[in-house]
Amino acid sequence: MIQHFPILSIMVLFLGAFLVVLVGRSRIARTAVVSAAVLTSFALMVALIKPVMIDGQIISYWMGNWAPVSGYAIGIGIEVDALSLFFGLLVSLAVMLSGFYSFKYITQDDSPDLFFTLYLMLAGGVMGIVLSGDLFNIFVMLEVMTFAAVALTAFRSWNPNAREAAFKYLVVGSLGSTFVLLGTALVYGQCHTLNLAQISGLLSVNGINPTMTFAFALLFTGFGVKAFMTPFHPIAADAHAAAPSSVSVLISGVFTKTGVYGIIRVSYFLFKSMGMSSMQTGLVFIGCVSMFVCVTMALNQHDFKRLLAFHSISQIGYILTSLGLCSAIGIAGGLYHAINHTLFKGLLFLTAGAVLYATGTTKLEKLGGLARRMPQTAALFMVGAFSISGIPPFNGFVSKWMIYQAAYEKAAETGSIGYAFVTVIAVVTSVLTLASFVKVGQSVFFGELPVELENVKETPLSMRIPMWIMAALCLLTGVLPGLMQQYIINPAVRATLDYKGYIDAMMGEGYAAAHLADTVPLAEAKYTFAGAWDPAFWLVLFVIVLLGVTVAMMIGKSGRGAATAIADDKHDTFFGGEKNTFSQVGGGDLFWGFKYNFRRYLNVMGNAHSGVVNDYVTWGVIDLALIIVYCFIFM
Amino acid sequence: MMLVNYIGAVLLLATGFYVMMTKENIIKIVIGMGIIDYGLNLIIVSIGFNEGGTAPIFTMSELKPGMYFVDPVPQALTLTSIVIGACVTAMALTLCIKLYEEYGTLNSSHIRRLRG
Amino acid sequence: MKNTDNSDLIVKCLADKFLPLSLVLGLYVILHGNISPGGGFQGGVLVSSAVLLLYLAYGYKGAAATISGKILHKGEAFGAICYIVFAMLGIFYGFNFCRNVLFSRGEIGDIWSSGTIALMNYAVGLKVLTGVGFLLMLVIGLLAADPAEKAPDASEGGELK
Prior knowledge:
The structure holds three protein chains of three kinds. By secondary structure, chain A is mostly helical. Chain A contains 26 helices and two strands. Helices cover 71% and strands 1% of the residues of chain A. Chain A has a two-stranded antiparallel ribbon with strand order 1-2. Chain B is mostly helical. Chain B has one domain: Helix Hairpins (Orthogonal Bundle). Chain B has three helices and no strands. Chain B is elongated and about 65 Å long. Chain C has one domain. Chain C is elongated. The chains are: A mainly alpha, B mainly alpha, C mainly alpha. Chains in contact: A-B, A-C, B-C. Chain A binds chain B through residues 136, 140, 143, 147, 150-151, 154, 160-161, 163-168, 170-171, 174-175, 177-178, 181-182, 184-185, 188-189, 192, 194, 237-238, 241-242, 300-301, 606, 609-614, 617-618, 621, and chain B through 17, 20-24, 26, 29, 33, 36-37, 40, 43-44, 47, 71, 73-74, 77, 80-81, 84, 87-88, 91-92, 95-96, 98-99, 102-103, 108-109, 111-116.
């Protein structure tokens, strides 16, 4: 009976979506159907924790009982190992909490029955991706998920920017799906099968031909589009800002994780290319660029949700960096950060939604001093802000510490200074994240209450309960990292590095040994997690950072002087201390001096995010070309 | 085998990418997405072709065991891909209509409120 | 039908004659989906072209008077639910999902020879018929609506094969 649980947990979401269409008009029936669907799906996933994670069993399920015939897979398979179950738990938890939040939140929009139909289709599509064992099934569910997300982005008819955001999201998103489909077709042409386990058995890095290198680059870039890798991130900022908040939780917390899951399956399982140091460097480079570019863009933003979206993408950069290191602690840090990111980013988006519900705006200039009227929302926001900046005892601290340690150990092990530089970038990004959130907290919750916001009320109770549950989980996963590691993260890490078990579970015993004679081995799963706090390492790190800052300031000196000062009405107030009656300095200008010093870089970045859809497509195609060239040179 | 098909499909993909990158009218961008779909479908169908094979249909005992037939799996993949392409085109054109109502123009460099 | 405007008499006549033909052809393609090329999706699109024929001949008002959007919308959900129920039959009988449990009747070439596959095919045909028809009605409504009247929210997402 246990083996039916994965497919039931996907189908119950789709069944709920179509039932909502039939009974949608009446509010009670709709609430009942949606609650039943998300609760059932979550319960089925939780029921699978004991067999799969604790006992180590891998559930392999062939649809229609089409078992493999003489070593060839002919049916569509569903395979749930600890990695899939990890992502499945994350997805169903986020869907459940965000679903309960939406019951009250969506009363401000029209047509709630259409909202819940699309919401459940999005949830079902994402569950279909993480539990599936067949490459084309992943593609179809990817498309279902993209359509539902685009339709939900365009949902609000009273927001004039929503249609533009949805159009850009559709164009670039379908570009990503095109890459995935092309990669799948090429893989099928080589292996004549679509089953992940069998493809993984047939392909090996030492025997790879140029067509397969091309297919790897395409699949990697395609899943990277869904995970909002660096050149594809401007659409994420638009989509998060335009969508309703409960959908922003799903896009940032769940949708991006399927891109990360796809990258793990392609790099670690199908092509087994992560053992090569050039591939590790490539993924770490992409992660670092994502982290740094997005956190500096976030300093410039004037809209609450757009700023949260940029931070979300920079945290995905952390996850990609950590997964690219390909050591046991690196993968553990990446997966831990994935679940932490869903929790704290979900909490932050839900608080943004509560602010929008109460006041009707998300622009930082118009908000201020809301902590007096909405104290619980302000407390929840502070929990989220501390978690994302990596402050103990919340969960961001544990996972970020693991990522710093993983990068530093990799630098010590391989002796290359590049990985120490990665640690420096990660720490600097963390500091800039904290700076951003101090600024947002000051602008939105502390400070002066404007006159038109005198009558805002606290968030309704049914919206506060999911937020409190998420905050409690943030605290719990930060305070009990040992339990999380033992029961949830370590089985997933072991499953990532153990592709032989995955293949044997689907295709029968002995298949892996017969076909995988010569492959590059991945890292051993060492579990000496003692936390080497050696003061000498940190002194070296501090000296590197100090040298870097000195060099940057000396180069930057050429931009000073009266000839290059731009006319800005806040310049005199900040730099000269002049008294000014109409200076327009508000809570959002907390780091104005910092922004002024780096204004050339921020201007270039701001112009690069030009808002024209052709530019985004051009960036995407150029990035695909670069990744193809990189793979051909180094694989 | 089928070199003409592959060259034609790659030319269609290149044309589709060119249209999506350079044309400013959003309807032309949607047409570019359609041309990319045509190129993809042509590649998928051509992958499954076996020389001298017959159609994989069992009706009226046309196909005897041991006969050589064309691979049916890419045909199913292409069918799904055509359906998905039709849905993407429908959604994109609906968004174009709503964008025209809101912005009054179909030029993508004027539809730029979200930037920076 | 009442001919109030004689300028498109030819279009109206041809539409009247072709409408039953296209409906019958579409239903034939749906029903024989498991034994001949075609099937649910292709037949469903053929049947839903009836909406376009009505629009070409009689305009938006004529098409909307004949075809009701609400019934199409509910019919689409009904088709999808039927598909999921037929697929779950496999689990109720003790096998895996999507198992062909009604297989043992008829031989190759009959309509009923493929068991559950035929029933799932009809469910898909019903879903595509109603879904594409509703989509076409919405898009035609958007194009033909007055500026004063609020156009309906036309975002159709998701399909199930």
